[in-house]
């Protein structure tokens, strides 16, 4: 579903060839599409069908992808591989990678502003939520704090704040956008926001655990890189067992909040376990 | 006016300190604010006051500034100075510069989506125009074609296409957004689009001329860099006199289109000469 939807936004567009190739290279690099799935599941808690959220889901995946392309750059994490494939700047070059990221970010706003299935009021709300979640109030702030924490001893609270911004904001957007477009009540939105918060952190805790216990082949990247880079992680601050305990605790809190929302949350409920037990 | 407006969008925002500093460093680097001025003048052709266009003008300047920060990066033009000041990645570092650019781009959409003086329909139209002008259909495409043209002999038509995208799209946005918010008619918008096209190219022709004849102190950068970098320019393709002739021709075409719009275009008319005769 997502692949077809993604391609729809590139088929008839006259982008420079190398730019289109670079954008699609990373979009099609076999990500897990967790954010679009989450957005669809959140909408599905209130409505049937998926038409109404497809463009927002694609835009969200574009923003996630741009952030990975820029994160991988030599001046940032300097990664050569992601998901078992060469990173964008290795497959193309640095200048193209910077521009492909810029283009994906900009295009994500363009496709929402032109979504034929949303009213102007809906577009504006989605654009407000997405820009806030991904910009200097959200994901980019997380990226800065993450860089500042390198080679430093930070507290659990600081670590959680980094992840709440760097990963949690887009996870939160997925859940809130789905619920908003599904006409959830204010009350329901409040509970889903809490659910999204715990889910986002839980996702990151599992990421840190996989960097210790994961299977390199399944992950498509080498494990142990956090330790090599002397990064602050949950296992480092809490021990491996402590991290696993925290993950369970957050999974339970997420489930609790989800129940309070009183909607058709079966799929979202399953996603908590899926996020918590994923092996890649 | 612009300085106060710009600062308004940073005063009470909780961005990470270094990110805010880096964003403001380049925003306040003493640019000519030509795009905001143009937007205001275009609005002024139809309405009095400027309140309604201030946020769009700030957003436009943010996008222009992000594009300069990313252009200056080592992987792109590798410039150490701009407007007589260190470029963003030299004053901070490469990672911060990449993120400051990303943040400015994203924040520009956020402030428009939250502009209290625009209706949802107006916000959506402005966001459609701005994202299209600055993304893979517009400015980023121009950047790619510009890179591809390096060290190559290109035709006058190709050169014009590069500038129409790289510079012209944002100039076009300034004019169209101002006229749209000023309630110009379809007919008037059509003439103003033509005006903006000639103005954008004219601006670039003068840029190329200044790289040969300009005063380094006034420009805040060294002249002759186009020749050093073996760049395709108007003077290179047409000779210096040919470039000056073309500039005059485009200035006349711009004036012609402006007259056809039949609005209070005195300031816009003056801007044609200002763009064409500027010394920095």
Automatic annotation (TrEMBL), chains A, B:
<comment type="similarity">
    <text>Belongs to the FPP/GGPP synthase family.</text>
</comment>
<dbReference type="Pfam" id="PF00348">
    <property type="entry name" value="polyprenyl_synt"/>
</dbReference>
<keyword id="KW-0460">Magnesium</keyword>
<dbReference type="InterPro" id="IPR053378">
    <property type="entry name" value="Prenyl_diphosphate_synthase"/>
</dbReference>
<keyword id="KW-0479">Metal-binding</keyword>
<keyword id="KW-0808">Transferase</keyword>
<dbReference type="InterPro" id="IPR033749">
    <property type="entry name" value="Polyprenyl_synt_CS"/>
</dbReference>
<protein>
    <submittedName>
        <fullName>Polyprenyl synthetase family protein</fullName>
    </submittedName>
</protein>
<dbReference type="InterPro" id="IPR000092">
    <property type="entry name" value="Polyprenyl_synt"/>
</dbReference>
<keyword id="KW-0414">Isoprene biosynthesis</keyword>
<dbReference type="InterPro" id="IPR008949">
    <property type="entry name" value="Isoprenoid_synthase_dom_sf"/>
</dbReference>
């Amino acid at each position: 579903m997502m692949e077809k939807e993604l391609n729809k936004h590139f088929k008839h567009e006259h982008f420079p060839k190398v730019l289109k190739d670079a954008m699609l290279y990373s979009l099609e690099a076999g990500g897990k599409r967790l954010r679009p799935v989450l957005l669809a599941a959140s909408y599905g808690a209130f409505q049937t069908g998926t038409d109404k959220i497809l463009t927002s889901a694609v835009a969200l995946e574009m923003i996630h992808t741009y952030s990975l392309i820029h994160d991988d750059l030599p001046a940032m994490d300097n990664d050569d591989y992601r998901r078992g494939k060469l990173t964008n700047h290795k497959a193309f070059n640095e200048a193209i990678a910077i521009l492909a990221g810029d283009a994906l970010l900009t295009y994500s706003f363009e496709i929402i502003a032109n979504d034929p299935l949303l009213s102007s009021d809906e577009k504006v709300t989605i654009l407000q939520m997405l820009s806030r979640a991904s910009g200097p109030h959200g994901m980019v702030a997380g990226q800065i704090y993450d860089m500042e924490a390198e080679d430093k001893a930070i507290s659990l609270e600081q670590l959680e704040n980094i992840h709440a911004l760097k990963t949690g904001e887009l996870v939160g957007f997925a859940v809130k956008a789905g619920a908003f477009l599904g006409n959830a009540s204010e009350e329901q939105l409040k509970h889903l926001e809490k659910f999204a918060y715990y889910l986002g952190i839980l996702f990151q805790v599992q990421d840190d655990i996989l960097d210790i216990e994961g299977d390199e082949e399944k992950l498509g990247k080498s494990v142990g890189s956090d330790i090599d880079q002397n990064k602050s992680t949950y296992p480092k601050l809490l021990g491996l067992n402590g991290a696993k305990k925290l993950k369970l605790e957050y999974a339970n809190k997420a489930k609790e909040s989800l129940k309070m929302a009183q909607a058709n949350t079966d799929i979202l409920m399953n996603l908590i376990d899926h996020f918590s037990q994923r092996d890649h």
